[in-house]
Amino acid sequence: MSRNYVEELVSEYYKIHGYFVMNNYWFPFTSERKRIVKGKKQKFTAQSWTDIDIVAINSKELLLIQTKAIINTKKVAENIIKFFRRVDAFLAKGLALDQKSEIKWWKKKRTIKRIVIYETGIPSYNRIVENAGIKTIDFKEILEDIIKYISKKKGVKEGNPIMRLITYLNNKKIVKI
User: Fold this and answer.
1) How many domains does the chain have?
2) What is the rounded distance in angstroms from the CA atom of residue 139 to the CA atom of residue 141?
């Protein structure tokens, strides 16, 4: 599955910092829905799927990371909170998608951090998210750290195409980094 450049670079950022990283980890959830059938309102439960953009694990932390282009409305902030509640419910079961293999080890002796990394955020809506225990990080901070990392490197090959491009632009002084 293709990812956007923010997901790609955030994944690389956490790899640089020693995390094992998984991308687009899909999991099921159920939700209550409404419909009208023959003029009558009905409520029903349906299974859907969603994904954690980035799961990053090291010996001390489990990071559950969602990337967003923009946090600019109360509804977006509420949807982020709802998303992380679904993630928490999935992890509480401690089972992988086959419903047999355990993933309790993800959380064992680790601090769990819920993080949303955004490209554009409005402080009042970011605070709604933060008040729910979800850390918000401006993507600019991640990118600046990656640029510092690349600017200190000499002759090391990058496997990720976007990282290679940033390295190339830096080495050839095409873009002032």
Assistant:
1) 1
2) 5
